[in-house]
Amino acid sequence: MANIFRDNLLTGKVAFLTGGGSGITLRIAERYASHGTHVMLIGRRQEKLEAAVAGIRGAGGSADSCAADVRDYDALQQAFKKTNELWGQIDLIVCGAAGNFPAPVLGMSANAFKSVIDIDLLGTFNTCRGGYEYLRKPGASILSISATHAFTPIPLQAHVCAGKAGVDMLSKVLAVEWGPSGVRVNVITPGPVDDTEGMRRLAPTEEARANASAKVPLRRFASKDEIADLALFLSSDAAAYITGSIVVCDGGQSLSGHSLGLA
Ligand code: HXC
């Protein structure tokens, strides 16, 4: 029986992480790598990816990167092929690429709305659909990073709310369709997380940060490590019977009925 507190749970596994060059997903990659997993970081900007890879290698981990936009199915296919040639079958996928800017519906063009839907929802579809043939079956785990936006209507965030609700439902359908192949599909739903691009965009000032923290029952933001610990658990055999779950890690924020203090 796996014991998450004692065992090196992910030794020798292979992970593919979109949005892996920064933020929550990079911290998950670092956590995986420290447990012996080979991590392939996917993102749009090569320089950012190279810095992230250097950091993981510097800490003794195994990492590589491939520049690809999750909106580009063919580019993702190349990245999956590269990962497979380098390390073999893929055990873990993390769909972490996301886009965001605060704007009211009347302040965004159709293309602005589409750009976030394409990154968040279509990007998650492309990653899961394109990655399936490379997954270890049975045994693989897919995790998507959603947001409380998926079930809380938040002003100035219509694009993200719609996109993340789609990610949650897509993940549940995949859990049903791919369960018989031994592929688990789960979602992590963070609330506000410190030192992330999302919170820099949504709470750019000290006042906005304080306002957002005050809406959280635990009265603080999460750390990226707290999200990475949850990802480690859900990706491991300690969670072998968990699939189709939306796991909320938000300090109780979504229970309070508040919308991050945005409006
Ligand atoms: C209105 C805007 C806008 C703004 C961009 N657009 N910013 N509209 N208000 N503030 C419009 C543009 O005018 C354009 O429409 C369309 O959006 C696409 O813009 P581009 O810059 O061409 O797109 P692109 O380069 O693909 O960039 C995508 C992006 C950008 C989503 C707009 O913000 C991005 O790359 N973000 C990635 C990083 C990121 O956001 N990370 C945070 C994720 S946090 P027109 O009509 O002019 O062509 C997250 C979790 C949130 O998701 C949860 C926190 C609790």
Description:
This protein is α/β, with parallel strands linked by helices and 263 residues long. The protein has one domain (14-249): Rossmann fold (3-Layer(aba) Sandwich). The protein contains 8 helices and 7 strands. It has a 7-stranded parallel β-sheet with strand order 3-2-1-4-5-6-7, with helices on both faces. Hexanoyl-coenzyme A (HXC) binds at residues 98-101, 103, 107-109, 111-112, 115-116, 119, 147, 160, 192, 197-198, 201-202. Residues 98-101, 103, 107-109, 111-112, 115-116, 119, 147, 160, 192, 197-198, 201-202 line the site of hexanoyl-coenzyme A.
What's this entry about, in short?
This protein is an alpha/beta fold and 263 residues long.
